[in-house]
Design brief:
alpha+beta; SMI1/KNR4-like; globular; 8 strands; 218 residues
Length: 218
């Protein structure tokens, strides 16, 4: 009951402030070209994300020596059979950019200070199934996020060691003409959510956020 009351209060604050997205520091960025699904683009982006995360003084202590030595925070790729099994379990076809990511790395470790782990495809699940109170509170707000929140898929786990609750979500009900689902950074301190047109754009935003943070420390 206490958690639900707190969430209701945060939701009310979010509604009062209105839905918005920030350019830097973890916020949404203007779309930079179409979403990428090819493995070469994903490898290049994830290599850059690895280097930035390893250099970040808040993220590096959470990494294993093997990850730092390898300069890679990813996992072995998902097989087509594993992706197909998840799609059958969820009753949807996963979007192209997210599938491209999975073919390079089936999950990811510490893409930011707030997200501890992007889940492997076997572990993605409806957000409402694991966080009913949180989802139901936001479903009553009446904005673009609330209209889709009950249908979202949770693709990361909470990083409670890092502080506040934050999660990455895919929104199957917010589908583009190209078949891409919106990808959200959803947190209890963010009014609405930071909404990106695809999972590719969300991960580009993580790279740009870490670049911005690194530059601000100089």
């Amino acid at each position: 009951m206490i958690r639900r009351a707190i969430l209701a209060m945060l939701a009310a604050i979010a509604a009062g402030l209105g839905w918005f997205a920030l350019h830097n520091g973890g916020g949404s960025m203007p779309p930079i070209g179409p979403a990428r699904a090819d493995e070469a683009s994903w490898r290049a982006l994830l290599a850059e994300l690895s280097a930035l995360a390893i250099a970040d003084p808040l993220i590096r202590p959470r990494l294993t020596p093997a990850q730092v030595e390898a300069r890679w925070l990813g996992e072995p790729p998902a097989t087509e059979e594993e992706i197909a099994a998840a799609e059958a379990r969820l009753g949807i076809r996963l979007p192209g950019s997210y599938r491209g990511f999975l073919r390079v790395s089936n999950g990811w470790n510490h893409p930011s200070s707030f997200i501890g782990r992007v889940r492997p495809v076997q572990e993605i699940a409806p957000f409402v199934a694991e966080n009913r109170d949180w989802a139901v509170v936001y479903a009553d707000i009446g904005d673009d996020v609330s209209r889709h929140i009950l249908a979202t898929l949770q693709i990361s786990r909470f990083d409670h060691d890092g502080g506040d609750d934050a999660v990455m979500l895919l929104a199957p009900a917010a589908l583009s003409a190209a078949g891409e689902m919106e990808a959200w950074f959803f947190a209890n301190w963010v009014p609405g959510a930071h909404v990106h047109p695809s999972f590719w754009h969300l991960m580009v935003a993580e790279v740009e956020s870490l670049k911005y943070i690194a530059a601000s420390r100089r």
